[in-house]
Amino acid sequence: MDLRRVKTAVGALAALIAIAAGGPSAHGKSFEPPKGKSFHGVSETGFTRDYKSFARLTGTHSAVQQRFSHWGMPLTPALNRFHKTRTRGVLSLSTGPGGQPEVISPLAIAQGRGDKYMLLLNKEIAKSRQIVYIRLMAEMNGHWNAYSAFNPDGSSRGKSHSTKSFRKAWKRFSIIVKGGPRDKVNKRLQALDMPRLLRAKSNKDKIYKRLGVPKALPKPKVALMWVPQTRGSPDVRGNAPSDYYPGAKYVDWVGADAYAKFANSTLWNNLEAFYRKYDNHPFVIGEYGPWDADPGGAFTNAMFNWGESHNRTAMLLYYRDVNATNIFNLQHYPDALDVLRQKIASDEFIAIPAEYRGPDNGF
User: Does the structural domain 3-179+218-354 have CATH classification 3.20.20.80?
Assistant: First the structure.
């Protein structure tokens, strides 16, 4: 059986049913590829030459680039690279630089102490007119991330990093970055027991005029990706993926990460269970790769076969860290490279997003 054809047929039938029922379009607020199709992506290094080298290596233009960044960093330079390479961007956003102290905690975000940065993202993405996916505070139930609620030994990091604070921070981020009338943004925040935008005392607070915040925030083309580990690390009570889930209203995609280094029956079983539990969202493999060994390309082949057989899987993102030479890069795994070349050259994968096709590139 050709799984790609099955996936396409099932997707087409679902789309027809949705249209007949008056449901959302095939793209919806999640900005998915057309039903039965997928996007492939790669993490970016800050240099378009490295993206082009990856494209030459694989023989195919990948439709998406993932930018790893932290709180407070402007997105415009990356948006310019995305446009130049005709790719959609995924912003994988942390609360601080890797290995360094946090810029902000989940509780501080929920309390409105990071609103200026969220307003900046709202403005930058809207101005670019690009579609951007935001993989916010990924792998949040992994202790190696500063925004996780638990330390490696299972002890709590306190209220500033509790799962409740995380969920509220996520909701606040979604409401502000996605924009809309300022008074409605404030109403939604207050309904969730959070302060108004910029911690204002009223909807007409002078801070809005002083900082140039319009009465209606732009509404950029943004989709949020919720990508935990399929099991907590540490695997203790209160650190399961569900403890960090902010609710379907605030999540556009769900997903998980997988590497050859950890590929065993437990990984695949956990991935399967996680995929089935969150079945009302399109699915993304937020990071995958042959690290630190993939003889015969077996893991890479299994990863793509899994995606083909799970028809909500609409994006797979190859992880190579933030430079083009480290051990995560594809050139170190020739067997995996052979498999990847074949897989992403298939008709299932869209090489160039629709907005970059045509005489005006959609801009």
Answer: yes
